[in-house]
Amino acid sequence: MYAKELYPMLFVKKWPNPDIFLEKIQNIEHPFWGAGGAARTFAQEILLNGNQINWRFLAERIDDISVLVEVEMLKKLPMMIWKAHLRQNAMSKHIMSTEDLTRFLLDRYVSELKNILDPRYKHHIDMANFHLNVLYYKINVYDNESA
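^ thats the sequence. predicted structure below, dont judge the formating
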């Protein structure tokens, strides 16, 4: 669990004020998001080292799925922040510290990642269809490269 210890310390050094951190994290270019970002690194650690074996397959597909999770979280983030300031959600307990806020968002990212694959979730995706689409895309890319 190196990412959950490392990234909060790094973000505190860069953004000691949690309000500025919340303002900056709403941009997709923030180091929290994207390939090699804090969220994907933490999610991959959790999925590989966690006790739940049925989620380990997702660690290999993290870059494919996490784009959807990041879009979903970035859509929800302004409302989460607004409700946190009103003390109406779980984020409100962590909003006073950049370090706590980073840990909360990392945990929330993994939860969102698991929810997006759960058929009971409103905006879930079906992994059977997803694998076929990715395989089809890769075949087309390789066919076009060899031509």
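Residues 132-147 have pLDDT under 50 and may be disordered.
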